[in-house]
Amino acid sequence: MGHDLRLSGTDLVRVQGLAELDLTQERGRSCGRVGTARHDDAGACLEGLCGLLELGRNDEDLEPLRQLLEGEEAHTDPQPGLLHHALEAVEDREPRRRQLGLGVRTHDRADQESFLAVHGRVARMDDAQALDIATRAAFKGGRAALARLGTPGYLRWKGQRDVVVEASLDIQEQIVAVLQKECPGDAILAEEGPEDEPLSVDAARLWIVDPICGSLNFAQSIPFFAVSVALRVNGLLRVGVVYDPVRDEMFSARLGEPAHLNGRPITVLSVALGPEFWEQAWVACDIPHSGPRRKEALQAFPMISGEVLHHLVLGSPALGLCYVAAGRVHAYWTLDAQPWDIAGAGVILSQAGGLMTDADGGSWLHSDGSYVAANAVSHKWALQTIKWLRDQNRDRAKA
Predict the structure, then answer these.
(1) Where do the CATH 3.40.190.80 domains begin and end in the chain?
(2) Residue 347: per-residue pLDDT
(3) Which fold would CATH assign to domain 277-398?
(4) What is the pLDDT of residue 107?
(5) CATH fold of 9-257, please?
(6) In the chain, which stretches have pLDDT less than 50?
(7) For the chain, which terminal residue's Cβ has fewer other Cβ atoms within 10 angstroms, N or C?
């Protein structure tokens, strides 16, 4: 790779001044802007660095970031798309809504291999390299999100209570630009894209991107949202990154290694095995936008609320799972999430010692959109109420 920059928690704090300066400049440019937004080129990014020098903050630790920004290019042709069940292994996946086309044809693969050989890139990278790329992509997307917080642009409704903001397209372009530059032969699944776009459903390497997990919060300038990037290799999720730019918190993990928050290992909460521990639990959730699953979630919410110490709706599945992973809450549940909502956080949760299933207790990799996550002790308690309710509703529907 052209640059080897790993952003630890210390690094992120050191570049905070750069982010703040860029935010000020970006807000000045973007106020009142409507329509497709444009991003700064590498030269404009370097202006922020020059501003730091003028302020007398010439920190030698900023030099790696200067080199990274010099190498970044504006992304002009992103290839986003939509795909449900992207977490399943290829051999287990069946298109359920429509017949999905292939975004990468056989002769395209040969062309990509030739391109990689000519440019001296290694097609097969290890998880540490992939985590580095995902971290930088999420960090860049997070800076773009901060720049647009308070000025989200136009709103488009995909469905009842399901909103797309203009800024999310901008942020997605920033993330995809990094991934395409570093991994030109990889497929990318991103949340925002046309429904009929051909997708590489059988891709050996698939990046899964959510530019803003928490769109309703972001649209209302509520500072609780995240950028999520995950990598699936041969049907197995291997790398996950979730970045909260408001709090400057980078959750990350790769398969077989501990999960981290800003460079420090994290684990799920350890709870005493007592009869009253569930009554002292903090539980988070998200409510589906509409339909039968929303009705079911609204039935489950008061039931669980009566059992635990505190029950709150977050508005971001990625952060909900990461909060379980970091020991901030005992459990998290939702009945209607998408693959891009939970792919990155799912890796982080599992590597932090957490347990996640669907709402019936089955594998979350083959979920119908329902997810229940917790530490090993709390999981059965979190699951039992939701599963009982769903079973009751199914029995009534059959009657």
Answers:
(1) 277-398
(2) 98
(3) D-Maltodextrin-Binding Protein; domain 2 (3.40.190)
(4) 33
(5) Fructose-1,6-Bisphosphatase; Chain A, domain 1 (3.30.540)
(6) 1-62, 64-66, 68-85, 88-123, 196
(7) C
